[in-house]
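Recall the central idea of this unit: under ordinary conditions, the amino acid sequence of a chain determines the structure it adopts. In this exercise we apply that idea directly, starting from the sequence alone.
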Amino acid sequence: MNRNFSFIILTFNEEVHLPRLLESIKDLHAEVFILDSGSTDDTLKIAQAYGAEVQSNPFVNHPQQWDFALKNFAVKTPWTIGLDADQIVTPELFAMLQKFKDTNFEGINGIYFNRKNYFQGSWIRYGGYYPIYLLKMFRTGTGYSDLNENMDHRFIVPGKTLIWKKGHLLEENLKENDIDFWLKKHEKYSDLIAQEEIERMQNLRKQSLNPNLWGNPDEKKAWLKRLWWKLPLGLRPYLYYSYRMIFKLGILDNETARRFHYLQGLWFRKLVDKKINKLKNP
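Accordingly, the structure predicted from this sequence is:
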């Protein structure tokens, strides 16, 4: 058994994704913990077949679900890796993890992985979607879930972090090959984000991180979010979409990826702003 790190994975009806992820990490011989939120397909059978320890918890949002996972699994290794079920560890990242020894990372509390995002079979290479560095590996008991977010999830660690630019975490939700699934999912997400922004306007939510354009990837994102919240509702989706397509070269992506930029960068953002206006003016 790997004595350096363990995996925690969140699931809900992930029979199409979970075998892919578990197969990509099984030869690391690390303990796997799975927090499920009421799957009705073969997710739990697959988890048991791979020897994972499973718990269940009703889903409210991703930050709260991760908070429950970190507090309720008895992780004994010095490091924890938190993954989503629709992600895969590439052979290059696998090799880096295989060589990983806790004693070589004294003074480091967190490690960012480089994510490659796919939509309907196409890599989203441009539009600000690559590289994207996600804090996925952290010292057990030191990293925690940011509960000041209603939807966008992040782990936070105090102290020093590293970025692994080589090796990738691949992310592709195969359920999104059905565009209706994507649209319904983002309808729900738009409710969560609209409610969150209203609560921020009312000073009921604060940013957990210090916004810093020159800081680590999450501090930079916090700075950009703070700027986003100051932009005019209704106009900002068009500014953002233009930024992605022109300044971040989204126009160079293929047709499928450009459709993703439109849906995620314009359609979705307009929907959020529309719902914020409804909440402000009932």
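The chain is about 40% helix and 25% strand.
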